[in-house]
Structure prediction request, 1123 residues.
Amino acid sequence: MAVATYLDAISQALREEMRRDPNVILLGEDIGAFGGAFKVTRGFLEEFGPERVIDTPISESGFVGAACGAAIEGFRPVVEFQFADFIACAFDQIVNFAAKAYYRWGTPVPVVFRGPSGGGFRGGPFHSQNPEAWFTHVPGLKVVAPSTPYEAKGLLKAAVRDNNPVVYFEHKHLYRRIREDLPDDDFVVEIGKANVKRAGADLTIVTYGAMVHESLEVAERLARDGAEVEVVDLRTLCPLDTETFLASVRKTSRALVVYEAHLTGGFGGEIAAIIADQAFDALDAPVRRVAALDVPIPFSPTLEDAMLPSAASIHRAAIDVLEY
Amino acid sequence: MGHDMVTRIVMPQMGESLAEGTVVRWLKSVGDEVTVDEPLFEISTDKVDTDVPSPVAGVLREILVNDGETVVVGAAVAVVGASGDDATSSSAPAPGDASTVPEDSAGHFKATQPARLVSFQEASLAREVSDDVPADRSYSPAVLDTARRGGLPVGTLTGLTGSGRGGRLTKRDVERYLQQSGSPPGSDGVGHPDAREAATPPAYVYRPGADDRVVPMSPARQRIAHHMRWSTRISAHATAFAECDMSACAALIASRRAEVEREGDAPLTYTVLVARAVVAALAEFPTLNASVVDDSLVLKPHVHLGVAVVLPDTDDLLVPVVRGADGLALAGLARAIHDLATRARARRLTPEDVQGGTFTLTNPGMFGGLGGTPIINQPQVAILGLGAIAKRPVVVDDAIAIRPIMVMSLTFDHRAVDGVMAFKYLDRVRRHLEAAPEAPGTSGR
Amino acid sequence: MVPPSPDADRLSTTAAAFLDPALDRTAIAPDVDEDATPAEMRSWYRTMRLTRTFEQKLASLYRQGQIVGAVYLGTGQEAIATGVVGLLRRDDYFSTVARNLSGWFHRGVEPKHVFARWFGKDIPPSHGRELGLFLADLPNFGIAPYHNGSMASWIPSGAGFALAFKLRRQPRVYVAFTGDGATSPGDFYEGLNFAAIHRLPLVVVVESNGFAYSTPATSQMPVRNVADRAPAFDIPAEIAFGNDIFEVRRAARRALQHAREGKGPYMVEFKTFRRRGHGEHDDQGYVPADLRAFWERRDPITLFHDYLTGAGVVPAEALDDIDRACHNLVEQAVDEARAFPDPSPDSVTQRLFA
Prediction:
């Protein structure tokens, strides 16, 4: 066991997979000599060489398409977007090629698309987004969003080993702020399984990514007031494990869905719809959501803080649902 | 810069994901003058090594973090004060200090703030939750489901008070209620304990004064209160009165008491005689032995006569039921009534003893009084109350006579029973009681 | 040597915009480097004739309402794919759509399967999920997957396959067929840029037929030729007359050799003409009549037919036999295609994830 940050965990996963399987290659901007904008791949060029750690020109659509071609031909590429927001430049190749090739022709495309998502650090509109909803809406893609170092490592390994295209959003706010003791063995976290991060009987919070930690903080606060909150971490958005959060809502009868992405059309809406559909008889209060306002993420601190969800806004919403 | 303006110097964030930084070395010492943008100290982080310039001009007053120490982003590392200011250091941030780490300005959440919906949509911000939301909101699926699984009729829910916002009923409220009241209610409408009255308009609710003594209702009292309120809501109550000359009954009791006590091992009382008359008359008026269900009248094949019993040391009113009273002769009826009353007073009644009644007989007259307007025992349609038997002057064959007179009060459900039938029934009972002692069924089972 | 155009057939000004007079010819002949045997040349003729016949049948079925969706033909461009694919090795890959059916047929794809896919039948690899226009089958034919109708979208993935070949030290080549219009999207540049940086074995064959749907090339690009952009990638490019199968082979031979020797991408731009609309739903009213007439006189099959019979390589009767055989094969293929099963509705959610 050794302590690792969330970022270390991602690094470890990539390194271990590259050592384990010579077909694993990396493509991305500044990942080679520079070690990556966030230093995820520091030392990789030296260990694995330029044919496996490929510094790409600024052309997301181009190198994503190339990764897909190489994947069909037997490699297992991991594509890094310097900021998750840049995935928009490769939208067509991911959504219309990678996602659909297996359904159309039986040709699997085992590529991992990963990038740092999330705001709260004054990065402005094009460096702070949580784009998962663009991709959960595309049949044929898997989408994961780990919240802890253990899961970041285990899910990335699972993604590399998965024969399907996996979109992996690592929340940059968690990179160096979360640490955990990680086991030494080769562990994998199964894609498609949620888990309960904190048990409780009074309210279910369904969430993922950085909001897991905000929600846990809220749960601690509410425990001092006598309300026990159960926090369900989805971990994988697609394919979605519905049983875990449905069982929780059937127990608590009150649900709050928390996600950092924009409220409208965000993935939390899907959770709310499923709860209303399949746990209707268990509900004692409306299913509420806490999410970012439907505006581009602004730069100025007062503005950004006014539109992103936080422990404070989650707390207020939780009380609202608890008191209903 | 004012005399007591001080500036906190903080560890900067040199990259989006960085959470901490290390002070490598200080380039200025305490007491040194510094100018704007002059480098103060060097730092090292995971991403970059650099120096940090001073945001203000002044004097370095205090160093809080030494060479080689690592602190989180935003932590204060030094204090710069105004030149010529010999005040001691303070770590209070100056007004408008731009280096202060922004706190969660979405709240500065205080516990005293009322909880409000936070999806941040304008509509939800505008929607205030008020306390005079009417109590007749719809029930949540969880409430209905919990009630159903606990065998609680939906109608009972209106009697419960909710702990949710605006008095809304919650699943917890139903669960607690089910725990307190034990098994679900029987079908004879004996109520169960009520927590409190359902939300009454505030103007009608008495607010106890300092000198008042507030006595919580016993479970029995609550049960009765609940039933009475509901019964008057369900049935269209009307009462018919009739007088009855009880001299024939008096004679019968005198002549047959010993025999009945021997046969039935129970006393022959006025109650027993009235019970026999009531049951016999019901054979001719089956509507008075029925129940109203939706738009139908449900007639029953037998008479299960409820006979009200007051327990001596409490105000508990029980109504044990003589099952199959229509098949009992005098001795049998006496025995059944005696047995039930005895067990009632000993609190040894079973749930079956108090269920399934089809008509109720109550005798408050034993405490004196002329008559009254008893309240129907749901789900029946009639109840007969007896007044005291008292000697009165009456006219018999155009002459004044002194006779023991008892007033009978028949409350009936006008949905099912009209006045004509009610009076006819009473008259039938009267004639039965005033008839010759050799009424049918003198030797009995 | 190639004889010059007769005066009566001088290029109209419209046609000149499409075809540099220096490239033009109305008669074709092989040069000394062409080593194909008569038997091989017969196979080229058969491929082109089969393609032409097949497409005529396809158009006819569409007009009868027996094929739904849309139909896109490559009438008049048959020499390009026949010429290029004929030079590929078995383990080379290429990507194309149905405007290059000749490439598919030359690799061995059977007409009945192509019809079956147009009928939406349940046959591998797509089992009804894909338009008849698209085919991807690497194991059997080396035809690579792609996703868009925009033929630029497979330049990046083509670079990816080429990357794989290079990383594995294999002397294989990826040939991406594309059109003049499809050199406008960003993917064309991003893919070629990436391939050029890493010197990947990517050959881009641009079939410049002068129109992207109804948009003439003059509205599509500010340069006269797609090949004029090659210096941006520091790669070689050449322009050739696409209706001369020998010319096609000359240019393709150079391109494939360059790529196979590890020198990086090579662009070949063939000038040709699309004799039917963008799809059969398009009547091509935007094409001037004289332009259409000009290209009719330069039909690739006619040119080749004239050479074969004129040079005595193959007797006319033998070519007529081939014509007849193709006709019968196509008719039979339609019947066989109808016999394949329709996909069951229950299968719609299957095979989403590997």
Notes: The CA atoms of residues 205 and 231 of chain A lie 5 Å apart. The first helix of chain A runs from residue 6 to 20. Chain A touches chain C at residues 25, 51, 54, 56-57, 59-75, 92-93, 96-97, 100-108, 110, 139-140, 142, 163-164, 239 (CB under 8 Å).
